Amino acid sequence: MLSLIKDNFNTEEINKILSDNFFELKLLEKEFKANKITFIEFLRRLVDKLD
Question: Would the pTM count as exceeding 0.70?
Answer without folding.
Answer: no
